[in-house]
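Task: sequence in, structure out. Protein: YkyA family protein.
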Amino acid sequence: MSNHRIVFICIFFMTSLLFIGCHHSPEEKVYNYLEEGAQVETTFQEESASFIALEKEEVEIYEQMVTLPVEEMEKITTLVEEAISLAEERTQLLEQEKQIMKEAFEQYETAKDAMDELQTVEESIVLEMKRWIKERENAYFSLHDRYVEGIEKDIQLYESMTNEELTMEELKEQVQAINDIYEQVEEDQQTFNDATKAFNEVKTELYEELGFQVKMKETKDTEKHEEK
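Result:
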C-alpha cells in the first residue's frame, strides 16, 4: 500500500524594473502593485525547506509505525503522536502561506483596479490580465484546501493505528482515500502552475505595452513525492 504526498510551492516570475519615471502614472501604479504582490509571495519561499523536512520525517515515522506488531502498541502510540505533531506543523505552515498569498492577491486586486485607468493598452490584454489574476487566485485556494484535507486524512490514519482492532482491510481503505485526495492535489497543483504560467506570460505582454523594459527570472516550482 502507498500514500502519496506532495509539497507544493507557489511558482511565479520575479521582475526587475530597468527604468521608471518620476511620477505615479497609471502605468507605474499597475506595475508597482503587480510587483508588490510578487514580492510578498517570495517571503514564503524560505519556508519550503522546512516543509519538505517535516514531510520527510513524517513519512519515515509512518514507515516505522506500519512495521511494528500490535504487541508494540506503546511504541506505535509514541510514533503516532510524533507523526500527528509533524502533520499539524505542516498545517501551520500552510496557513502561514495562505495568509501571505491572501496579501499578495490583495495587491493584484489593487492592480486590477488601477488597470481601469490605463489609456494606451489594448483592452484585450487588460481583460486577459484580470482573468488570470482571478483564475490563479481561485486555483491557489482550491489547491490549499485540498492539501489541508489530505493532512486531515493523514492524521485520521495515524490515530487509527492505535486501534488494536483495526483490520488490514480498513487500513487499506483509509490509505486509498488518502491517495485519492493527493491525486486531486496533483491535479490542482497543475491547474495552479498552468494559471501561473499564463499569468506571467500576459504580465510580460502588459509590461511591454506599458513601455517598461523588464528582466524575467523564473523561480522553479518544487514538488516532492513520497510513498509509504
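The chain has one domain: 5-217.
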